Amino acid sequence: MISHHEALEKVLATATHFGSEKIPLLESLNRILAEDIFADRDFPPFDRVTKDGIAVNSQALENNKTSFKIEAVYAAGSPQGILNSLENCVEIMTGAMLPKNCDSVIMYEDIEIKNGIATLQTEVKPRINIHRKGSDRQSGEKVLSKNQRISAKEIGVLATVGTSKVLVKKLPKIAIISTGDELVNVEETPLPHQIRTSNTLSLFAALEKEKITPTLLHIRDEKDIMLQQVENAIKNHDVLLLSGGVSKGKFDYLPEIFEELKVEKIFHRVLQRPGKPLWFGKQQEKNVTVFSFPGNPNSTFVNYHIYFIKWLTKSLELEDRNSEVILNTAVDANSNITRYLLVKTNAENGEIKAELLNENGSGDLISLANADGVILLPPEKVFEVGDLVEFVSF
Amino acid sequence: MISHHEALEKVLATATHFGSEKIPLLESLNRILAEDIFADRDFPPFDRVTKDGIAVNSQALENNKTSFKIEAVYAAGSPQGILNSLENCVEIMTGAMLPKNCDSVIMYEDIEIKNGIATLQTEVKPRINIHRKGSDRQSGEKVLSKNQRISAKEIGVLATVGTSKVLVKKLPKIAIISTGDELVNVEETPLPHQIRTSNTLSLFAALEKEKITPTLLHIRDEKDIMLQQVENAIKNHDVLLLSGGVSKGKFDYLPEIFEELKVEKIFHRVLQRPGKPLWFGKQQEKNVTVFSFPGNPNSTFVNYHIYFIKWLTKSLELEDRNSEVILNTAVDANSNITRYLLVKTNAENGEIKAELLNENGSGDLISLANADGVILLPPEKVFEVGDLVEFVSF
Fold this sequence. Notes:
The first copy, chain A, is α/β, with parallel strands linked by helices. In chain A, 20% of the residues lie in helices and 32% in strands. Chain A has 4 domains: 2-18 and 171-315, MoaB/Mog-like domain (Molybdenum Cofactor Biosythetic Enzyme, Chain A), CATH 3.40.980.10; 20-43 and 135-169, Molybdopterin biosynthesis moea protein, domain 2, CATH 3.90.105.10; 48-131, Molybdopterin biosynthesis moea protein, domain 3 (Molybdopterin biosynthesis moeA protein, domain 3, Beta Complex), CATH 2.170.190; 323-393, Beta Barrel (Beta-clip), CATH 2.40.340.10.
């Protein structure tokens, strides 16, 4: 059996690119940019007025002029205006282009307007209330980087520079396959020896966050049917996420089936809990990556985050932000396996503390619901209160 | 002008419930549970075998018996089996019901099977490798709570207890309305005095996270058209999020229009930056809440999170997890306004540190893209490196 560390390295070594595609801007939330994005013009694109009021020439202010005849009114969205006489002013609104011959904006709060004449009510500064052309970004400057995840803010930036179609990374086509004859559908009333399927639905929902809509499939524990359905799934997907069928049981046919379908076993069984029976492999010919998780819900969900999400992050060339939390309970990890313990995290005084959840180790999905993630405890170590430990968030 | 604190109180005082609705399980990700969820049976629902191997009666082990004739094989998903002779064993798979007359499971790793006889290879313990009926949850126990957000884990729990249709909080119908004649669509090439719309698209994307698909509307700065379109929007929505049109400019018609449409002004202008011109009100008759943000993108996006998201959180009765971060730069907030400064956060050694972004205060959406959120700096205070400050995440 290999260690968690070796297993993760082997998983990451198979990371794959899936190409890129152009999609409409409003569909691109949470997708990954596949190109750098540049400013298509200066930002702001013109000397932009930042207060409602009047625009004047600073010469007049320097000559201690305090009253200005209003020549015209310009709104945001008007073509650039002009101040004809440097003794006068124009009324101007936030967002408008600074008119020609003007270099100062005085806000309404500082003037009084009567009979077409604006009069200063207080001393004012020249050359203010203007957001200078190109002061945020110059035309051609990079505004967003390739391999960045697109959040709501990035949508705004993409809109600003006119990217109505966005080049994003393609996502893998994924099949989630459950096995196990004890499983029935959610809407069914299970017989005493049956339980409802839940694993695959948790994974389905988890993939929604990644903007992936997987195929959901349940296969009966019959070898011929299994072989045929896994073969089909390999034909039509880039990744298979399976749960169940890789333990040592008599009806755990998956390892044999993978062999028949030329899915090369990269490893089977890892020195870890939960998830010892984890099977991982690759069908080289079709470039399909196969994660075969143990059947119990906790184990599948945890290993999905520990292995699959890290693989996906690497495949999409996203930055993998490792995070650490502060342990608030001592843990004796005195064994030869890596342990993943469910924790609830609390941010207190700017520190992230991990509280261990009381699990009975049974793979109880209901305890899982209280967890924010797992801490990873390497083998043969004792952990004290206050120790920093690696954290994988759900 | 009122303070940020007063403004937020007034906003939260108008929080509204929108009722509840039943939706299919797989559509419920990120929605808010509108009812407590209870276990419909014990979990596990039966004494569940947790290892592949043989099941025996512990009497035989106590009598130092080491070889067992295999009576039968039971898979997961089979009805409960039975061990006829307490001297014998049955082969049993993970996930199966413990057969009658058995109370101990011995895993394959600890036995050898030859000619239908299983022989112990090592000393084994009685009464292990069984996950006891009801040990995770008893029938009728609460497994999820009302007002909880449904994440992938909760989808699994809901599936486990058979909730194929989930009662969730209804979400408000929202219109996002931009004003400002300088705005053109993303796919257009702006004239020198024009800019592309971006505000509304950022908000559209931000609402996608809340599972709300808003109506997007742009209104020209013409009072009659504005009046008619805002009136329409009020008829068909629970919330209006507007940007632009509430400053002191000549074409900032919105405050008048709100008055004509009986949208009661709760406040206009707040001692804060960005977002001083923020307008907030309510149309009582139709129960429509109106957030009217200033036109600049940074200001709108920040105030959306500071006010609207907190209002939505309260309306949906979600827990509002206030968070704090550690300042890594001294800030002199020596003014009478509350300031919202863009920060990038870093988790280091279990601590969350906030790095101030170098903004020019112009409402630059491109700087915004580098921020994880804002820190809130109350007026008349000086902040030192290491101080804890309130953080609002994007």
